[in-house]
Amino acid sequence: MAKRKSIHASSAPEVIGPYSHAVRVGNLLFLAGQIALDPKTMDLVDGGFRDEVKQVFKNVEAVLKAADCTLDDVVKLTVYLTDLSNFEQVNAIMSEKFSSPFPARAAVGVAALPRGASIELDVIADMRHVVAI
Fold it and tell me: How far from 113 is each of 12, 35, 36, 81, 130, CA to CA, in Å?
């Protein structure tokens, strides 16, 4: 069985349950779902859907950084949306954050998310460039 290492990101919102910010197994990093919590207040950001998406990406980047990774290392995203009509806004922001070749992605419509969030992202990253544990 592969050795697992838990990653804690001090600049990301604290976890709100019994889980890790991320777990490394071999060359893969699995991030827990991130919602648009402000790390300082632990409240959802104000300003609408676009601001939520931007904060979610900031939170993802904070967790990736704690593991010596960046968005360039992301190979798979799962996007959970409470309103699928926001799908195009997600595409627009992803186009700002990623370049080709883009990570693989799934988008899933859900009834609700923690803390009343409109979007949640979970991510898998490739860590081959980071020294093994």
Answer: 18, 8, 11, 8, 32
pLDDT above 90: residue 132: no
pLDDT digits over 77-87, tens only? 999 999 999 99
Calculate the CA 61 to chain-centre distance: 7
Report how far residue 11's alpha carbon sits from residue 63's, in angstroms, rounded to the nearest whole number.
8
Helix segments in the chain, DSSP class H: 49-66, 87-97
- Entry pTM: 0.95
> What does residue 103 show for φ and ψ, rounded to 5 degrees?
-65, 160
Name the one residue in this structure whose structure tokens are 């926001």.
Answer: 86
